[in-house]
Amino acid sequence: MCGIVGYVGHRPALDVVLGGLRRMEYRGYDSAGVAVLDGAGALTVERKAGRLANLEAELDAVGRDNFAGTAGMGHTRWATHGAPIDRNSHPHRDTSQRVAIVHNGIIENFAALRAELEADGVEMASDTDSETAAHLVARAYAEGDTKGDFAASVAAVCRRLEGAFTLVVTHADEPDTIVAARRSSPLVVGVGDGEHFVASDVAAFIEHTREAVELGQDQLVVITREGYDVRDFHGDAAQAKPFTVDWDLSAAEKGGHEYFMLKEIEEQPEALANTLRGHFESGRIILDEQRISDQDLRDVDKVFVVACGSAYHSGLVAKYAIEHWTRLPVEVELASEFRYRDPVLDRDTLVVAVSQSGETADTLEAVRHAREQKARVLAVCNTNGAQIPRESDAVLYTHAGPEIGVASTKAFLAQIAANYLVGLALAQARGTKYPDEVAREFAELEAMPAAVQKVLSTVEQTRDLGRRIADSRAVLFLGRHVGFPVALEGALKLKELAYMHAEGFAAGELKHGPIALIEDGLPVVVVMPSPKGRAVLHSKLVSNISEIQARGARTIVIAEEGDETVRPFADELIEVPAVPTLLQPLVSTVPLQVLAAEIARARGYDVDKPRNLAKSVTVE
Ligand code: F6R
């Protein structure tokens, strides 16, 4: 959701800001805007509903020369308060048009603030909650204790705002300074040579610098050409955490692929290898920032995995492994449901919060609820320093690199691998697995990048199949055991990318209802277990396939290489390498990702930016 970028330096700000917005397009948005300070007291703003291209066309129409200046900011908005139309797009200005703000998040007390401003005679120009901040900063700068002090004015306004926000503020009287602030919403500073950036995401400035600073909760930063200064909302100096981004521009570019998603599917072996690297040393599993002791892990008597969407499916997969390895009960829960049902939590509960972005509001709220109940929270996250790891007791980073396609692919596989590391760490601490068993499980995980690479070398057949079934009305997905969450994930991918009705079921449930959906020619994807590893389940699933085939379904079977028993029941057979049962999701998910992408392409859709979706869902 909303992307924010601010810049003060020596380059044309408009180019830097538009470049940053382009790199954050993946977050999802429905309008965009920019503001540039010309250094001589002029503040020029342009904003437009729709894609960035609309804004660029408007900038061409009014003349880009009007936007000369080396300080500025930009915003991509995902509408919450007020429709996605020009006047609700950011930046918003105060009545004198000297102050401009861009905002991410929701100002929860905006109604009261708006009423107060209107009572003072301020006429609102938009329907947004955000605009109130522009008027409040202008007022704080014009009068009272903070008069003439830009940073103090922003801090004073932040103290009054309730809810989650990242704010970036410019003032025409201070053309060489940008002030940015955050509470429960992302903000990073980019540190360059004679130039500084603020952004929701390092992708916005990765082209210019990999040196970054992660702002803490309720912190504010003042950037100029010369440096940056971090304070709290009371104006006191504050500590922020510098880091170096461990990927570069090439990771944020398509590299010759038509879509980011197709590139990210191909990057999965590397994402897995990077996620596992460094986590097994001297015969032991090592997690990252581990603020949970081995004794705490020994005391755990129950595990919850909380997450949304694909990350939730990664938790469903992990449940099988963690329960098997540790004998601990594992509950996997949609983060959006978790805190509303009063889950039973205490200090011996381990809550694993899985989130690629680390920003998902539902998951963040679940983390907060768990910590209030004294449970220990371990985040599995792909984004350095995001809010969820920051508010957790420990973090295990997936190193999938930036995922720009909206649909989760490489992050999903990396989440499964990371969740498995958590399971092995628990088994190791609790002694439910001998060290040589932990070492063997880890070695099997380490062999997975090669297995996934093998699947990738054979996906042409799946692409061809995708094109052939692209005009189906619906597709069903069936699986059992770890194949069940894979079926759910396959259905989710197809829904979000191809806008096609798709449902995943546990195959055993078929006869309890879903079999009524089977009709002539309906494609049904079946994720088969191994005939050797899970012989009983395998034969039950073969019966399920024959039942649906008898009722006219077109069966598409994902099966282990050499699985001859299933061949007669498969109208289409997609073979994947034989791997240990618990690791099967890492290979069987890949053809389903390819299938969904190919069907979406054949239907003419942009697979990187599916309609209505945002990459980071920062509202509940
Ligand atoms: C589906 C997808 C979403 C995310 C979900 C959670 O392809 O990408 O379902 O998995 O929104 O996002 P994170 O992992 O960022 O919390």
From TrEMBL:
UniProt cross-references to PROSITE patterns, sorted A to Z: GATASE_TYPE_2, SIS
One GO CC term, this protein: cytosol
Keywords, sorted A to Z: Aminotransferase, Cytoplasm, Glutamine amidotransferase, Repeat, Transferase
SIS domain: residues covered: 293-432, 465-610
SUPFAM superfamilies: N-terminal nucleophile aminohydrolases (Ntn hydrolases), SIS domain
Ranges for domain Glutamine amidotransferase type-2: 2-226
Any matching Pfam family: SIS
GO biological process, one term: protein N-linked glycosylation
Major location (coarse): cytoplasm
Protein location: Cytoplasm
Catalysed reactions, as listed in the record: D-fructose 6-phosphate + L-glutamine = D-glucosamine 6-phosphate + L-glutamate
Active site: 2, 615
GO molecular function terms listed in the Swiss-Prot or TrEMBL record: carbohydrate derivative binding; glutamine-fructose-6-phosphate transaminase (isomerizing) activity
Quaternary organization: Homodimer.
Functional note: Catalyzes the first step in hexosamine metabolism, converting fructose-6P into glucosamine-6P using glutamine as a nitrogen source.
Name listed for the protein in its UniProt record: Glutamine--fructose-6-phosphate aminotransferase [isomerizing]
Species annotation: Amycolatopsis eburnea
